[in-house]
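[job 4471] stage=fold_predict status=RUNNING
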Amino acid sequence: MEKLSGLTYIMLILASYRLTHLIVFDTITEFIRKPFMKQKRIVDDKGHVDQKSVPKSNFGYMLNCYWCAGIWCAICVGLGYLFLPGIAVPVIFILSIAGAQAILETIVGVGTKLIAFLKSAAKENNT
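[job 4471] inference complete, writing C-alpha cells
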C-alpha cells in the first residue's frame, strides 16, 4: 500500500462520515431503509401512545444503526480507494466536501442557537 497522506486520510474519514449519515438519517435514502423497518406501537408509563420504526431484521438494524453502518461505509470507502481509485476518488472527493460542510453547518447552527439562547436569557435578566 502506498503511503497515505494526512489530507487523503481526512478525506476518507469525511467521506465515510457523510456516506454513513446519508444512509442512516437522510430522507432521500428513506426508500432504502423503509422495506427493512416496521412500525411498532409504544405506550409509555403515562399512557401516551407513539409509533416508532424498528428494524425487521439484522440488515434493517444495520441500516438504522449509525455505528453499524459506519463500519460498512468505512470498509466500502477504504476498499474503493484502494482497489477502484478511478471511480472512488471523485466520489470520495464529493462526499468529503459534503461531510466537512455538514460538520461546519452543525457547528454554526449550534453556535447560532447558543447566541439566541444567551440573548434571550440576558433579556430576561434585565427585565
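[job 4471] summary: The longest strand covers residues 37-43.
[job 4471] exit 0
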